[in-house]
Amino acid sequence: MSKAIIHTDAAPAAVGPYSQAVSAPAGKLVFLSGQIGLEPGTGELVSENFEGQVRQSFANMQAVIEAAGGTLNDIVKLTLFLTDLSKFASANAIMAEIIPQPYPARSTIGVASLPKGAQFEVEAILAL
Ligand SMILES: C=C(N)C(=O)O
Question: What crossing angle do the helices spanning 50-67 and 88-98 adopt, rounded to 10°?
């Protein structure tokens, strides 16, 4: 899939590792459910640690992407949910390590709570 990044100086620059917009040719879209930091084997949170949960969430997301026949390059939109937005910079740093450029579009939302007491959830849309 060849995605194109859309950027304009008439809108604010990204405040994290994301693009203002991404366009993708008409094709197959895959909508992923949100992933939290559960270990696939146990179904329990990998850690009480925010960074550990973020990394496990992205690993879970990547496993589903690969099961759909895609790669991280096929992500066109991510949504991040954090129970503590003071961890925004940490989430950005981990995401920038994992997600290849050009970055997908993204929304980040602070929420009161997440299932299983998780601190982080990531949801993705792919264009294959
Ligand atoms: C401001 C955003 N769109 C973000 O951090 O995802």
Answer: 40
